[in-house]
Design goal:
- The complex is a heterodimer of chains A (188) and B (62).
- Chain A has 188 residues and is an alpha/beta fold.
- Helices cover 36% and strands 16% of the residues of chain A.
- In chain A, the strands form two sheets. In chain A, strands 2, 4, 5, 6, 7 and 8 form a six-stranded parallel sheet that branches.
- Chain B has one domain (16-60).
- The longest helix of chain B is centred in the middle third of the chain and has 6 residues, at 26-31.
- By secondary structure, chain B is mainly β.
- Classes of the chains: A alpha/beta (188), B mainly beta (62).
- Chains A and B meet through helix 5 of A and strand 1, strand 2 and strand 3 of B.
Chain lengths: 188, 62
């Protein structure tokens, strides 16, 4: 197996003004970066120029594709809009395919209400599967998100550190297993 | 297993074929109707990863 650190970028999945997913995504990046042997970076979909006159791999953003190529796993921080995911997130995800296959993915749902984005997570799972990503069985659920961070983005509830640690523990394990498989185990 | 091993375009070493992915989109089928596997319902592609540099390549199943 290659000896490079495991690379887990975090996708901030909404461009909406005033988004509360932003402090969540920054918090997740901080927690990932604390882990030994793991590298991360924040991908803000607001900064990826995508045309809306076409769809799919023909409109790949080269930088995003390169990041996905390098990734061993993904974390998607996604708010729940009308019980679903933001359209721009799907538009972006659909621009790549081979870059995702046999890589781990974990989803952090964000909601203003009490359910922590459980509905948007459930609606994303089949999309992840079809993209060739491997879902883990831990989620991040950020409920009542306005109460979790203060105005400056500082975390107010330390329990989220422990919860996210369990999520990351599983994601890193799956990322290592899948990297070994991609590099060493041939399809029969 | 693919009939022909795939060589990494960056490292020149043999890549690992670790997945087959079915492309069942209508645009792909319309673009390459002869490539459609009627039993599987789409165009079958092989996914290869380089054990050295992590480059990923995809090609039509051989």
């Amino acid at each position: 197996m290659t000896t490079q650190p495991i690379f887990i970028p975090v996708i901030l999945g909404t461009p909406r003004q005033g988004r509360m997913s932003e402090p969540v995504a920054k918090f997740v990046v901080e927690q990932v970066a604390k882990r030994d042997g793991v590298e991360t970076e924040l991908i803000d979909i607001r900064n990826i120029p995508l045309p809306t006159s076409d769809e799919g791999e023909s409109i790949k953003d080269p930088k995003f594709s390169e990041t996905m190529m390098r990734a061993d796993a993904l974390i998607i921080v996604v708010p729940e809009y009308n019980h679903g995911y933001p359209g721009l997130l799907k538009h972006l995800l659909d621009t790549n395919l081979k870059e995702y296959i046999h890589k781990a993915v974990g989803i952090c749902g964000v909601s203003a209400g009490p359910f922590g984005g459980t509905r948007v997570i459930q609606s994303l799972l089949p999309v992840m599967r079809e993209l060739g990503l491997v879902n883990i069985f831990w989620d991040g659920n950020f409920s009542n998100v306005h109460n979790i961070f203060d105005q400056s983005g500082k975390l107010l509830d330390e329990a989220y550190i422990r919860r996210l640690d369990k999520f990351l523990q599983e994601l890193v394990w799956m990322a290592k297993v899948l990297r070994y498989g991609r590099e060493n185990i041939a399809s029969e | 297993m693919p009939a022909e091993p795939m060589t990494c375009p960056k490292c020149g070493i043999q890549m690992n074929h670790h997945a087959d992915k079915l492309d069942s989109t209508s645009t792909a089928a319309l673009a390459e109707p002869d490539a459609v596997n009627l039993e599987l319902g789409g165009i079958l592609n092989e996914v290869h990863t380089c054990p050295s540099c992590k480059t990923i390549e995809i090609r039509r199943a051989t």
